[in-house]
Amino acid sequence: MTHDLDDLLALALDPDGPEAPRREAEASLAAHAEGRRLLAEHRALWSALGELETPRGALSDEHFTDEVSRRAQRLERHAARTRLLRGASPALAASLLVIVGSLAWFGHRAWVHRDDQLVHFLHLVENIELVETHAQALDLRNDYEVRRAFAGELSER
Amino acid sequence: MKRVLVLPFLALLLLAAGWSFGHFDVRPEQLERNEARWAALSGAERSALRERWNELRSVVRDGGPEADQLRRRLGTLNRMLQQEGDREVSSEELAARLASLPSRIQTHLGLAPELHWDAAELVSVLRADTRRRMDAFLGNLSHEGLMRDEDLAEFYVASWDAKVDLALELLKREALFFESEQPAEELDELSEMSPLDLAARQEEQRRRRGVIGRAGRLLNLTEDETRRLDSLADEEFEQAFREIVRPAARRLLLEQGVSAAVVEDLVARPYRSLERTMERLLLARR
């Protein structure tokens, strides 16, 4: 059966072969699930190689084996990556949780700190309208404080 | 990954922005009042205050003359409030005090109360008097070898703002010198203060002890004497200094072995000059 399938595949995938046998081979392969799978797999392989329409030379055993081997290696590498990711996913999830938690804590601290600063200066913030309406008087008082800071430097009058 | 790094960095910037608002001298009793007041506010009131706070911070962050002006006015208001100590002062009371300030200054400067002085005239008279005092301050520093003549010459030709900044900076350095016996942590805190905040603190100390610095701890004024000093208006202080502090300073200097003739010369000097001399004498006798 395997040998038959190989022959059918060789016929079906050989673009240089005679038209009628190729169609018959395609029809035969299409009649079986395994045949459909193998035909699709081989076409995908050639498509991946960019040579779907022109598989060079037919599918010699050696050529086919090489391609299957390469594909198998690719699949193995992909599977290894998947296994690695699957194995590392708890650690990644935990790290992500730590990062998100840290950011949330830090953001919360920053928020609390912002209120700390506001509370520190609350007596000024609540009186900001006074600063606006009595700006000139505050400037005068500042001038007066500068004068006061240099009191006691001159001999008494 | 970059985003992960950027977020903590932004949070640090947020914290830094909070710290850059300014170093005002806010006393523990004021902080306690602020915390109690904050705890009593509703959510809506807090949100409104946060909004106002953000506006203020953005003005300060933008920098320029507007930010300097705002900082200066807030600093002045802060000192007004800190002077009250434990007492809470309402906005209305503050407004009334600020409204009466021109007439109080007029009285203090000995200007005829029946004459109306507009704000610009008052500022001009006040600054002329301040200039005399600042010149005397720098002259005294120079006389005592604490300032170079070329710096003094530069000071005399500087603009008003530059002159005030320089004189205040020197005043702050001298104030820190008087505080040099304080623990390092407190000294750090004092050195963060603005010169006027520090000057206000030292004036309080002067009212409690008679003079600032080491000599203040040795004068041993009575409770009645310090209470009287503390309750005086600025214009009354010099008279009280003559009556209360001068005799105590005379006693201290004689105890330190200074001859009677020199003591008489020293106590007759302006009180800042007397404070400097006593500080240096006590430092030398340690």
Structure description:
The complex is a heterodimer of chains A (157) and B (286). Chain A is an all-alpha fold. Chain A has 7 helices and no strands. Chain B is mostly helical and 286 residues long. Chain B contains 15 helices and no strands. In chain B, helix 8 packs across helix 10 and helix 10 (195-209) crosses helix 12.
Q: Kindly state the mean pLDDT of chain A as a whole number?
A: 78
Structural class of chain A: mainly alpha
Taking pLDDT < 50 over at least 5 consecutive residues as the criterion, the unreliable ranges of chain B are 9-19
Largest sheet of chain B: none
Q: How large is the count of helical segments of chain B?
A: 15
Give the H and E element order of chain A.
HHHHHHH
Binned strand content of chain B: under 5%
Q: Let me know the average pLDDT of chain B.
A: 88
- For the record, give the distance between the C-alpha atoms at the N and C termini of chain B, rounded to a whole number: 62 Å
Characteristic key phrases:
heterodimer, A: 157 residues, mainly alpha, 7 helices, rod-shaped, B: 286 residues, 78% helix
List the helices and strands and how they pair.
The complex is a heterodimer of chains A (157) and B (286).
Chain A (H helix, E strand, L loop, with lengths): L1 H11 L6 H12 L2 H16 L12 H60 L1 H4 L2 H6 L1 H15 L8
Helix pairs in contact in A: 1-2, 2-3
Chain B lengths: L1 H18 L8 H13 L2 H20 L1 H19 L8 H18 L10 H25 L5 H9 L2 H19 L5 H9 L2 H15 L4 H5 L4 H9 L2 H22 L4 H8 L3 H14 L2
Helix pairs in contact in B: 3-4, 8-10, 10-12, 13-14
